[in-house]
Design brief:
By secondary structure, the chain is α+β, with helices and mostly antiparallel strands. The chain folds into three domains: 2-244, no CATH class; 253-333, Transcriptional regulatory protein pf0864 domain like (Alpha-Beta Plaits), CATH 3.30.70.1380; 338-386, no CATH class. Helix content is 34%, strand content 32%. The protein contains eleven helices and 20 strands. The strands form seven sheets. Strands 11-6-1-13-12 form a five-stranded mixed beta sheet. A four-stranded antiparallel beta sheet has the order 15-16-14-17, covered by helices on one side. The chain has a three-stranded antiparallel beta sheet with strand order 18-19-20. Helix 4 packs across helix 7.
């Protein structure tokens, strides 16, 4: 049996809402504070209060910073990593916290065109954001959560105001984070920033899978309140905590398989269509050769996606292949837990996916590095695997 937490983020997600949901589900605030005392971060108070959102009893997390000044809102990824690595946090709390800030640094670096090592956090570097992230990881430790599953994440629309100025909603950081794991985003008719980079990063870094509630015996549930009480909608993150069977015994993640038969497209068009489907959010896309009526050679284009993205994927498949129809089937899949790391080969970054007993180097990164260094691809692949950190 595995200790499991499933998060319902359909109304949005923020770090403080996730933390509050875990406290509402039974994580002892005193034990959370005891764990967080191992972090060299002072002059703040973390409190929890009972409240309601659209009539739903919930808990709100509040961080109050003492002796505030602007410097507290501007920390580099290097500074935060050093703070966490030198902390006295439990090993799993430390590694989970590092994973959250690592994905944030990666996406911010890509947005601003700098190396992840050089990223300077603004809102995310503030004391309250650090407390939210480490607090979530501490609460997961208190509840002894081993596996995390997250549903689709609700996002607002329009624009939002940030320290960088007015940005689209959802923000570039949120969209970039979601793209790292093909996370399903669901639009909500609200102009507010429902999904924050910190909240989405927590899910992207820590969730083993994304999808509906897995088969589990629920032992507790919690609701973490957002700052606003919205008419007609409970502004909360819901968490269910309990025991699940191992991955081979419980229902998998629901996915939709979309397919179209085409007999009048070139290999180049097929390759582009597959790339476009993946870019649109498909979990996977591929083509298989078939023989149609009258012996005509043809191909079936396949795409596996979150059911919430079906309309978008169908639109891309029709546009890119010219097919006159698409069929679909609901299936289940059992994706294995994985993490993404970055290794350096002669000063150049290569992403590496790590799962239990297997290491897979990101092919496109390896091709670019091989070309830049004038080395055979096989050598770059071997060197990238060899320098993978423990």
């Amino acid at each position: 049996m595995t200790r499991l937490a499933w998060f319902n983020c359909s109304a949005g997600v923020a770090g403080d809402m996730v933390l509050a949901s875990l406290v509402d589900a039974g994580a002892d605030p005193l034990r959370i504070a005891e764990i967080m005392s191992g972090l060299a971060l002072h002059d703040y108070a973390l409190t929890f209060e009972a409240t309601q959102r659209a009539g739903v009893s919930s808990t709100r997390a509040i961080v109050v910073e003492h002796g505030h000044d602007d410097s507290h809102h501007h920390r580099s990824w290097r500074d935060i990593r050093t703070m966490l690595e030198e902390s006295d946090l439990p090993a799993r709390v430390r590694s989970r916290s590092l994973a959250v800030f690592e994905v944030l640094a990666d996406v911010e670096g890509k947005i601003h065109g700098v190396a992840a090592e050089e990223v300077e956090f603004h809102e995310v570097g503030a004391v309250d954001s650090i407390v939210d992230v480490v607090g979530v990881c501490a609460a997961l430790e208190v509840l002894d959560v081993e596996q995390i599953v997250c549903g689709s994440i609700g996002t607002g629309h329009g624009t939002i105001r940030t320290q960088h100025g007015e940005l689209p909603n959802p923000s570039p950081a949120v969209v970039g984070l979601a793209a790292m794991r093909n996370v399903g985003l669901t639009g909500v008719n609200d102009h507010r920033e429902l999904a924050t980079p910190t909240g989405v990063a927590v899910m992207v870094a820590l969730a083993d899978t994304f999808g509906p509630i897995p088969t589990m015996n629920v032992s507790s549930r919690g609701f973490g309140a957002g700052s606003a009480d919205v008419d007609g909608r409970a502004n909360v993150v819901q968490v269910l905590v309990g025991e699940s069977s191992n991955v081979s015994e419980y229902s998998g993640e629901a996915v939709r398989l979309l397919e179209a038969n085409v007999d009048d497209v070139t290999g180049e068009v097929l390759a582009h269509a597959i790339s476009a489907l993946l870019s649109a959010g498909a979990h996977d896309a591929w083509a298989t050769p078939i023989v149609m009526k009258k012996g005509r050679p043809a191909h079936t284009v396949h795409a596996l996606c979150d059911p919430a993205l079906s309309a978008r994927i169908v639109q891309v498949m029709v546009a890119e292949t010219g097919t006159l129809g698409v069929r679909g089937t609901i299936l289940e899949r059992w994706p294995q837990a994985r993490s993404e790391r970055v290794v350096m080969v002669d000063g150049l970054e290569i992403r590496v996916k790590v799962t239990a007993g297997r290491v897979k180097v990101e092919h496109d990164d390896a091709v670019q590095v091989a070309a830049a260094l004038g080395l055979p691809l096989r050598e770059v692949l071997l060197r990238a695997e060899a320098v993978l950190p423990e």
